[in-house]
Amino acid sequence: MKANARHWFEYALLRCVVAVLGPLGIRRASAIGARIGALGYWPFGIRRDVVTRHLAACFAERSDAERAVLARESYEHLGRTALESTLMSRLGPESLRDLFEGVDGWDVIERGRARGKGLVLVAGHLGNWELSGAYLSAIGVPLAAVAKRQENPLVDAFVNRTRRRLGIEVVYDEESVRKLPRLLRDGYALGLIADQSGLAAATHVPFFGRPARTPRGPAVFALRFDAPLIFVCAARQPSGRFVLHLEEVEVTHSGNLDADVEVTTTRFTAMLEKWVRRYPGQYLWAHRRWKRQPEDTPPELREP
Predict the structure, then answer these.
(1) Computed from CA positions of residues 207, 210, 216, 222, in that sequence, does the dihedral angle turn out positive or negative?
(2) What would the pLDDT profile of 249-285 be if each residue is shown by its tens digit?
(3) Is the distance from CB of 225 to CB of 118 less than 8 angstroms?
(4) Could you tell me the residue ranges of all domains in the chain?
(5) What is the pLDDT of residues 128-157, one digit of tens each?
(6) Which residue among 54, 71, 281, 283 sits deepest, i.e. has the most Cβ atoms within 10 Å of its Cβ?
């Protein structure tokens, strides 16, 4: 798509952010991002009603004051994540490794790679999903990330140049069916975000007790190519650094592909919910996760 004047303005703004905040270092810039993100909660109130309803539905046992703290944390975290992901353009493998204080569950990567069939990595919009893939690439895991084309072609090119420079193979949505099987056979780990369905093939599985439209892709690739399915989350710690959590998702091979996809998708979504409950302030609550539900969904389980 040809860039228009608005695209050039947005791109110039992005490069200004990198030029001004880059010299501060990613951790100091992250703190600035938290302050910027907090403005979305108050005074601007961007999607604050959506976030408030979602937290009330998912954490009914908590008080209004406790949920307000979580809401503000989620805005601050989104601001941090946005600036950290932008300033990845200035990082190399060594500085990426320094952002992490540990890996929880590395053995699942080693066992999976030993099978020689590639890996399917599934994540949600929890923690810093961009850093999780970049870190794995930096420590020697060949990674291919499935990405949506952004509306702004200049920003899209900037983001994907950064990913490729950090060793990540970028595969656009429309190329995935053709390219991902070959990459799996070549031993790559496929990075897929699976808590926003869009137009992707999807099924409805429970997420915090409500049917949520969820992409089938991670389960389909794991089943068709007999590849290990691993949940990934780069969670921010009190130190400001991250821990990479890795957990294998059980994949059932009954011979009925549709049924197995349904069961496997339910499992990795339940795993995401478990980690969201552990790090609730690091989830993207502003996204309308339950927007598209089956018509026969009971009123009490409808979108909050």
Answers:
(1) positive
(2) 999 899 999 999 999 999 999 999 999 999 999 999 9
(3) yes
(4) 5-296
(5) 999 999 999 999 999 999 988 999 999 999
(6) 283
